[in-house]
Amino acid sequence: MRMLTLKSGREIPQLGLGTWQLRDEECQNAVREALLMGYRHIDTAVGYGNHTKVGQGIAESRVKREDIFLTSKAPRQRLWQDRVKSDCDQALRDLKTDYLDLYLIHWPNPDIPLEDTLAALEYLREAGKVLDIGVSNFSEEWLGKALKKARVPIVNNQVEFHAYLYQQSLLAMCRRHGVVMTAHSPLARGRVLNDDTLKGIGANHGKSAVQVSLRWLIQKDVVAIPKATSVEHLKSNLAVFDFELSKEEMATIDAMDSGTRLIDPFPGVFE
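Given the sequence above, the corresponding structure tokens read:
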């Protein structure tokens, strides 16, 4: 597994399993099978309501906790200091772990002071309950605010990022400040599957459009966390480290950007 180095000096696996919308045994089984086949990065969130099943999947895999990079997120509507702390404590109980590798602010909330939320994250980091902190779905404006107000490194910004939403300016800002970007919805909710351009590029390498999409992110030093439930899809998503896209192929995918945002529950964040 290829790793990227965070600003803190710790490493994050560049490919992980996203668990948004995974519930019950489907979630538990996906986490277990992913870890058994070599995944070492699991992404979840308080708002996903699946911490217990994620924790059970981890336990069933028998992979050592220290070998797993576990990310969760504090919900937007509960970013007050006391609630961030209590939600994290509950997350640790549900996941049956002593710490999170990364804890993110799930979405910015202009109604709750950012410095209040960051103070809670910093407390959790100092207490050893969280090893690194970051943000999710933060625009350039919001990321700038977080970087100015944080007293400890913001190491990650997890955002929607795929061939149809190439957030080049935001990625450049992250790179300038040493913030690793994670792409959620990297397959554009399945839209890449039948894309003729991506399928054509894939034919050059004996790969699928999905694998080409993930490889594009890998070569941009972006972390990708595609959701998958079947063993077949989990294996396919993992098979992206044995080929390389040419500069011309990368440029072709870059040019596919249409600004298509598929997840926008709080309009105005990215305007």
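DSSP finds ten helices and ten strands in the chain. Try to locate this feature in the token string yourself.
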